[in-house]
Amino acid sequence: MDDLGKQDVAISDRPRAQTAVLNDARRKLDVVMPVYRDAVRASDAIEALLACTAPDMLTVRLRIVDDGSLDGTAEALESLFGGRIDIVRLPRNVGRSAARNAGVAGSDADLLLFIDADCVPDNETFLLHHIDAMANADVSIGSIEGLNDGFWHAYQGAATARRERLSRHSAAAAFTTQNVMIDARLFRRVGGFDEAYRGYGFEDRDLAMRMMAAGARFGQADGARVVHRDSLVLEKVCAKMREAGETTAARFARLHPAEYRALGYEAIDATKHPWRGLIARATWPAVRLAVRYDGWINWGFLPFAARKTMVRMAVAIHFLQGTMRQRR
Asked: Which strands make up the sheet holding 28-35, listed edge to edge?
């Protein structure tokens, strides 16, 4: 377990996972959920997980990682759920990758389920769908539904359809650690999450690429569905993309250049296309204004395709701006 987060770990041939999901080798499941100053939404997700049906022979444990919240989050969850969950307290905020690795450290589980604190399973058979998918896979990718909040619901639906198209060529395109089950042997073999990804984004796709290189089989568990309970705001979405361009894009591009290109990020990377960076800089004042005052997103008289294109342009320009300020 000391090798988690260290990406100089050798990936050697590993034994193939058994096709029978709940055999002697797969009897323990740890659910790992990082949380940062979000006790209310985390408690909803925990309640839903505790209500999920699991096979009698499978022991399920919830490991909640408080990523240095220091605002009473851990205490609130402990008060609500007591011994029904394990809480891993981190003294400072270490980011998604290190927090998830901390949740796995010391685990003796055979299966790992990673889920975000703002993602709530929408049915009691959630775990069963993942486990069924693992019968013929080492990784089970669950589905994610957004809140039915007009434009953003439709936008996320279009983004999901795009990722599904891309996933025909690479499983990494559809992979997300918001809702995924992984064979623990595989996770340990590839070294867990790369803790060098400290900012927003790319740590999940990096893990997917390394698991693919290790020969992992990816399965889809459409019935293992969560509702992503995050009301999207354009300014927040753009800020995350700018952070990704600045903090994590360079590492992913260096380690996985073909995937970076296939996913479309290279096309909006100013270090690869400096002239596009100049366009981003020239349009930045107008784009910032449009992002800050984003009421136009809900203008019904404007076709959805036009609004989607405008949002994608704003997101791309923020990513370009981030790449111009990359921390290498």
From this structure: 86-90, 59-67, 28-35, 111-115, 179-183, 139-146, 218-228, 119-121
Give the sign of the dihedral formed by CA 121, CA 122, CA 127, CA 133: negative
Report helix, strand or coil for 16: coil
State the helix-helix crossing angle for 274-292 and 304-323, rounded to 10 degrees.
120
Across-strand partners of 179?
Answer: 115
* Cα–Cα distance for residue pair 270/261, rounded to 1 Å: 13
User: Which residues are within 8 A (CB) of 242 and not within 5 positions of it... i.e. 6 or more apart?
Assistant: 318, 319, 321, 322
pLDDT of the residue at 157: 77
CA–CA dist 233, 253 (Å, integer): 27
Is residue 69's pLDDT more than 90?
A: yes
- Mean predicted confidence (pLDDT) in 5-24: 41
Residue 167 — pLDDT band, cuts 50, 70, 90?
A: low
User: CA nearest 38: which of 73, 87, 2?
Assistant: 73
Which amino acid is residue 248, in one-letter code?
T
CA-CA distances (angstroms) from residue 193 to 142, 160, 257?
A: 19, 23, 19
The percent of residues in the chain predicted with pLDDT above 70, rounded, is: 89
Arithmetic mean of pLDDT over the chain: 88
